[in-house]
Amino acid sequence: MNILPSEIKTIAAEGITHVNVETVNGNIELLGSDEAEIRVEIYASKRLVMNLFRKESISSEDLSYGLINISQQNETLRIAVRNNGFWRWDWLSFFQVSFRVFLPKNINTLLKTTVGDIYLNNIVGKQTLRTSVGDIKIANSNGEIQGKSSAGNIKIGNCDIKGDISTSGGNVHIFNSKGELNSNTSGGNIKLENFSGKLYTKTNGGNIRASNISGEFKTFTFGGNIRLEQMRGNISASTKGGNINVQALAIEEYLWLESSGGNIKTQLPLNQGLQLEADGVQVNAPHLNNFQGIKRNGFISGSINGGGASVKLKSFGGNVRISVPKFEYNPGFDKDLKKKQYSWVEQLNIEKAPDISSRASVNPTTTSTPEPQKPYYKERSNSFRIGFKNALNRLNPRFLFYTFLFALFLIYGLNSILYFSLELFNPTSLEAEQNKAVFLANLTTGFSCFASLVIFILFIERFLVRNWSKYIILIVFTYFTLMFLRLFQKTLYLLENDGGKYWTHYWKIMSINNDNNVSAHGLLYLLIPMIAVCVIFYNWQRSKDLDRKISEQEYQLLNLEKLKTKAQLNALEARINPHFLYNSLNSITGLIHDNPDKAEEMTIQLSKLFRATTGRSDQSAHSIAEELDIVKSYLSIEQMRFGDRLKYLINLEPGLENIKIPRFLLQPIVENAIKHGISKITEHGTIEVRISREQDLVVFEIHDNGPAFKEDLSGGYGLRSISDKLQLIYGNMASLQIENNDHKAIIIKVPVETLDKIAM
Hints:
Elements: E1 7-12, E2 18-25, E3 28-33, E4 37-48, E5 51-57, H1 60-63, E6 68-73, E7 76-81, E8 93-104, E9 108-115, E10 118-121, E11 124-133, E12 136-139, E13 142-149, E14 154-157, E15 160-167, E16 172-185, E17 190-204, E18 208-222, E19 226-240, E20 244-260, E21 264-267, E22 274-279, E23 283-284, E24 291-296, E25 299-304, E26 309-316, E27 320-323, H2 333-336, H3 343-348, E28 377-379, H4 380-394, H5 397-424, H6 432-460, H7 467-496, H8 501-510, E29 513-514, E30 517-518, H9 520-592, H10 596-614, E31 621-623, H11 624-642, E32 646-652, E33 660-662, H12 667-676, E34 685-694, E35 697-704, H13 719-730, E36 735-739, E37 745-751
Parallel strand pairs: 2-7, 2-9, 3-8, 3-10, 9-11, 10-12, 11-13, 12-14, 13-15, 14-16, 15-16, 16-17, 17-18, 18-19, 19-20, 20-21, 20-26, 21-27, 22-26, 23-27, 32-34
Antiparallel strand pairs: 1-4, 4-5, 4-8, 5-28, 6-7, 22-25, 24-25, 29-30, 31-33, 34-35, 35-37, 36-37
């Protein structure tokens, strides 16, 4: 906005949690402010039909006719353009209305424009962005963002966001940011710099380039190249028809690269433990220290330095090359890295426009004549050149080239088929016999291609190892199939011998040597079938690789989720075990001076309990009977401390003893029931554990007669760890309920049929 606003409106921000801004033709700028008010700057202009080359700004007086609608309903403030930008009294003008809004940082917004750009700067909260023809630019912002542009670019800088950003025909550029982001583009390139967190990107037909990425990074492109530098964390990259070049400085859990028809070059940290699997036409690798496994030309599988992170490199039809990074990973590298600042981020740091009253204030004491204020206008030539240049930048040259070729050959082919078909069914045509010969020649070559390709795929292809040998055998087999069909036609010709002229034209077309000269027609009818079968076979291989890739990726994702779930379960148990130990040691400490014998007995029971629990630390599940043994041991320890103040009852429905459940599912709840329930009363404390079955569910009910639950259970009762564990293992099939009425209880329900899946 390099002009003064047409009007400025200020609204008190008290009670407003959502702001919706909508325009048809214009930009929207959203800037965070520390003031407790919302300031709306309106920039309106119009072009007259009589003179489209001139753009005039609209004054505040003109806006009084009702072009802008600002209204508040409950907690939502709506700022919108009425009548799609046209006034009732002026249908011969084209209006453009842009907004710049200053608002408190934590207000949620919804921004919509049809033709225009959207800018965000210094914003915190949940933002939803929509533009049909325009760019989306986000800088210095935090929170959750959902954005979509149909034909524009996306730029994100200096942000900590979680969200989903996509564009249909533009490029994506993300730098100096962190968070969890999913970014897609249908026909553009993706460039990523200095990002940490979870990042998922996808493009169809574009290239992907990233540098200095740490965390979890997954990317895919159809037909483009992938280049990743200075990568740390978990990486998954896949391309169809392109090359992959990756420099991995440190790998946490996995590095999976796959290319169909392209080469893979990787720089791996071979000084760390890796589980390596590389597959390609040729696999080149340096000397691998402490390697155990299989290593031959085209395939490597084994462990390096005892194994560790999973590394899978697969190229279908390409080579795989492994090398060592040019420099070692330095943990302080991120801090020392000089961040690059881009001009568009600086342009978003905009100060507020002055008030309207400061536009044309004249000091009466001055003797000089003030310069008359000129209405703002722009020549159409400048804006047209800028708009045309932006439109060209948004077009993908590769897409334009392929579209041109497709349209050219499609129209040419359809017209040729139509013309030839009409001539073929015209017996009075001078070329009727020749048309029949051409039709027979095309039918012969087409059938030979189809027959040879089907027979080759069904009966020959699986016996060939080298990919190049498949194409050579296919070409030779197609040639002999075509010759066999011609021989069969020659036999029919000799048997029929009707003297038809079309046979003369046919043999003239199909013959390579005609009158001691090389026939161009015969050469084409011989070479085109060879080229056609190779192209069809290549596409068949790609489709086969795609199916195999989908199944392999599903398997890889399943293993990844399994590893991730197991790691998170181990982390949850690591939080529970020290908590139980601290409580038990505190109980023993309280009895050392008052009753040393009980303290000694409690120590022995605690030793037995931890020997039982840590002896199977590599498992994530055990039977209900084993879980109840832990609960009984714990309750017996606590009963020694509380004496007659604590009684417990365990009721298990017969037939449920051997059902598998997650480890430490009941013990933390029983532990917190004592700490926050029984310990708060002076006598007659009771804990009751009931386990029963309801159809396909196992129901665990833990009851205590202590004080009622507090409203906030996240801190005292530790139910978050149990809820997280149930979500990791069962998803939405399990539930955790809290009853806080006369019968205080915590109820857990888990499905029976999936309990065996947690035994990993």
